[in-house]
Amino acid sequence: MSSSAPQETGRQRLWSVDEHLADVLAAIRPLEPIELQLLDAQGCVLVEDVTVPVALPPFDNSSMDGYAVRVADVQGASEEFPAVLTVIGDVAAGSGELPTVGPGQSARIMTGAPLPPGAEAVVPVEWTDGGTGGGAASGMTPASAAPEGAAGEVRVHRAAEARAHVRARGSDVQAGDLALAAGTVLGPPQIALLAAIGRGTVRVRPRPRVVVLSTGSELVQPGEPLAAGTIYDSNSFALAAAARDAGAIAYRVGAVSDDADTLRATIEDQLIRADLLVTTGGVSVGAYDVVKEALTSVGGSGGSGASGGSGGSGEEDVQGGGVDFRKLAMQPGKPQGFGSIGPDHTPLLALPGNPVSSYVSFELFVRPAIRALMGLTDVNRPSVRAELKADKALGSPAGRRQFLRGKYDAGSGTVSPVGGSGSHLIAALAHADSLMVVPEDVTSVEPGAELEVILLG
Questions:
Q1: Cβ(405)–Cβ(336) under 8 Å?
Q2: Residues 229, 236: Cα–Cα separation, whole Å
Q3: d(Cα 255, Cα 218) in Å, to the nearest integer?
Q4: In angstroms, rounded to a whole number, what is the distance separating the alpha carbons of residues 108 and 113?
Q5: How far from chain centre, in Å, is Cα 215?
Q6: Burial of 221 by CB count in 10 Å (0-12 exposed, 13-18 middle, 19+ buried)?
Q7: pTM, full prediction
Q8: 383-388 and 414-417: which strand pairing?
């Protein structure tokens, strides 16, 4: 937690966004490294430097389909006066024993095939007659269809310099080079490099397993009919998708009714597969906000995972077993819960239930927690400064850091508001690609003013 204490407002403590995030990250420890097969390691963070055991490519090879030749034999060659060479055989990719190219000789060679001894360059097949005795060839006849193409003569119509169309041994990486540094996130290009240098497994921190569950008796799963007073559960889908986007393996649990015992049992069942638990809903002050009630004794936690605890006993700053419920000086997302539960002290973040509040809270607190579990040091979304493009000034409550949905234009360096400030406006969120940040001490932002913008894409 940051050194400054949460601000007091009467009987209620208000934590700043930065204080709450620091408290969360102080309790997160990166997951223990494991050895994984390459494809299983996709999206994981490397925990060791990987060096190149052998040069890549491991031998001189052809970058074209054509003929391996000696430079002296094709010097001065032209269409009018072609160099006529004896074809002594084929060299295909993967060839073991290679023919030796002597004076006046050549070998048909395929892309990726090793350069045979004696050869100094490769002439593309388009520079030759392809061994047909005719004009310029457009391609090579497959060896299976025309075995005579591997023998006889070829006419070369252009000269070639030494090493032309030859990929040199080690031209990609040399043995002993650093292939990938510890801390690298393994995406498809990195997986390709590891495979190319012969690594079948790699030591990484695994992707965190994040369990997402939403609460509320009014929630119905998409695809089912709506009854009076019910709505579809969007939060668990949004947060599970956001967890995957952050690099986690996400497990979405269907909505849990407003019953503390049911919620408690569900959470206890999920602990076995969770490195991080995220709940949404039930953290405010309503009579049916059961997350606080349910988390007073989940899994027999031995105390909060928060570094500083809530401190004090304000009526809206409730300690519940291993989870602290607190109010933050932000909009949307004022009510938050954080702590650890169960025998392994699994981190839990309890987010508010309004869709926008829930998503904004995820971006600010859960995503950094996931990235910290992965062992990354840069855990936050990138941010830029942008000029507000709007028809009128934007209002913001005093003492609250407001996060407004925006559309960022990198070309003009401007950001425009999308939708209103209501925490239930899902449609506007779907069209936003950023969050505009209005500081706590600002109550009005005029068009043309500069704002911090958190990029969500």
A1: no
A2: 19
A3: 9
A4: 10
A5: 28
A6: exposed
A7: 0.81
A8: parallel
